Amino acid sequence: MLVPILFMMAGVALLYYGAETLVRGAATLAVRGNMSPLLVGLTVVAFGTSAPELVVSVQATLAGNGGIAVGNVVGSNICNIALILGAATLVRPLQVDAQLVRLDIPLLIGVSVVLAIFLANETLSTVEGAALLAGVIAYVLFSIRVARHRVDGALVELEVEVKPEGSAGRDIVFVVIGLGLLVLGSHALVSGAVTIATSLGVSEAIIGLTIVALGTSLPELATSIMAAFKGEGELALGNVVGSSLFNALGILGVAALLRPLDSSGIGLADLGMMLAMAVLVLPLARTGYELSRPEGAFLLALYVGYVGFLTGVV
Fold first, then answer.
1. Is it true that domain 2-311 has CATH number 1.20.1420.30?
2. Can you tell me the distance from the alpha carbon of 233 to that of 239, in angstroms, rounded to the nearest whole number?
3. Which of 62, 175, 196, 278 fits 25 for a cystine, CB–CB 3.0-4.6 Å?
4. Partner residues linked to 291 by β-bridges
């Protein structure tokens, strides 16, 4: 049992540093190509923080572990709002940008409903995967268009400070190393998770919903807490909402295109929790356009209760 646990720990560490290295190299390359810092933040950095979920789900899909692939995304979306947003809010109350309330959060609710419907029959088909992938492409293009027309202070804070240093060759090396670490980390994490699930008689879905989901959400956790420390509440909340949208649309879209996914281990309670978190964050965000510390503590309590329910503790 010790070896697969060490494999999972190593996998989480590789995923974290792989995402950091990938973002550093890709963001600098984008700036060298005259891409604005704002667009870098909305595209390259947003993708980079979700890269671990993408690589892990693709790796699990190719290995025939559909439960881990789907559980990773559903669990990550629950973790994003309940754990990450809750923890960031405890650090400092988060200011909410009006666009998130008017557009992005309602869109996340709609996407969560669609995903729950797709997964209700315990499978995600190739056609459904194509529909999800088309959705994320449309969302990214729309977000870039909106960003180009907005110059208010809230979006200025979202800009990523990237100053090209060294050569472009070094940046490419960072990208290659980052991708390599992500691949190695995902393989180690999935292998360890499958071994533990098999030895303990626990379903792959539960492992994906908990340990794998938490491990792949570390970049979002680090980004949101750091943003909260800096007083950039819009960045913290935007990172959580954007990552959740990318998870549901892009990651499962890509995975299902590779192979139809068996989600038989994902129950209605899990889908209901994912949808409930998306719905709950809207009224919390609309109340004074701020998330308070008591609301953050409430979200954390919900996550602890959910994990306790999955593991049989409560």
1. yes
2. 10
3. 175
4. 94
